[in-house]
Sequence to fold (430 residues):
Amino acid sequence: MAGLDEGAPLFAQIAERLAAEIADGGLAEGERVPSTNELAAYHRINPATAAKGINLLAAGGLVEKRRGVGMFVAAGARRRLLEQRRAEFTERYVQPLVAEARRLGIDINELVGIVRNSSDIKVNDVEGDITV
Amino acid sequence: MTHAISVAGLSRSYRGHLALDRVGFEVATGSVTGLLGRNGAGKTTLLRILAGQEFPSAGQVLVCGASPAENDRVLSRMAFIREDQEYPDINVSHAIRAASWCYPDWNAELAQRLLADFSLPPDRAVKKLSRGMRSALGIVIGLAARAEVTLFDEPYAGLDAPARQLFYDRLLAEYAEHPRTILLSTHLIDEAAGLLERVVVLDRGRVVLDAAADDLRGGAATVSGPVLAVDDFIAGRSVWERRETGSQASAVIVGPLGDAERARARSLRLALAPLSLQQLVIHAAARPAENTLERIGA
Fold:
């Protein structure tokens, strides 16, 4: 199960990874999504599980089937994913940040200052999963 | 959904010892199912009955819609690969040729490819093969048979980790291209977890868990941190195990966790780690009386 964990159903993790690739632009709109068997071989998971993950994206309209060719990233998929991520931004990133700052006795003005000073950090330097 | 394997009320006793106790489950056609459980749980007995090599004391067993017992029509559609398969005094290529006569859908080219993958010398006498090589021979036969129903009973004794990985990869590739029904008994659950769509767990002859593997994932977690915070967090939850050392505690809790509960764990400075399928099965097997699935919320 390359890169997957036991914390959530595998099909949901497959869907999430593909969605992240689409949001990051790694999978461009109109581009072919890896096939069920390609995903199964790469992640070493059952093809049925991989298919379920792709179908979850299809049900959300993020990918669409072209008969006999495969699944492709739908038009507007990236914009919709980014909107969704913006909506979740406060809960996923800001609230834990504020909570930890409070624990460390960093007041809100100091925190704002830290954030401002951090804004010239290159994105690649702070990669990593912040959620638990 | 059709079922390649269907077992109901199956019991098998040996001189008063109940090896299988009213076992019932179904395996969907074209799926990979894991048959899990400790040594002596009854896995091999069950597989032998499915393969028509042993008879039930009570209950019904259907493979491809018919009883496998003394039924060549069913048995010719099935491959049974056992842990300790014995071979007559022949070499590897003879064993392969003999197997090719047994299975109508045998693929000779695939067999040759797999022999090379597993570095099996065709001229070597089977009796002179190491334990791992004998296991590999069984795997080659089981995959090249392309049987409608393939039963693997702990097929990798003596195989090292890279060779087992090769087995999983080839099994997956074969299954993707030529779908068939596979029932794999194993105790190396975490290694095989990704391949399994469904798990059936036996313990002391009884089915203690029968569920879609993905329904189990995320269904239980270990929460650890300061004793007071842990106890605060697990209050009112179903707890499988609680351990304590000094001011630290850890507990296995069952049931899905929502975002709010995860946030609460974070604010209590608790670490949450999902339980692996293997750990989940171990805990489930220790509690045959409870309805594990209901608790997990699947």
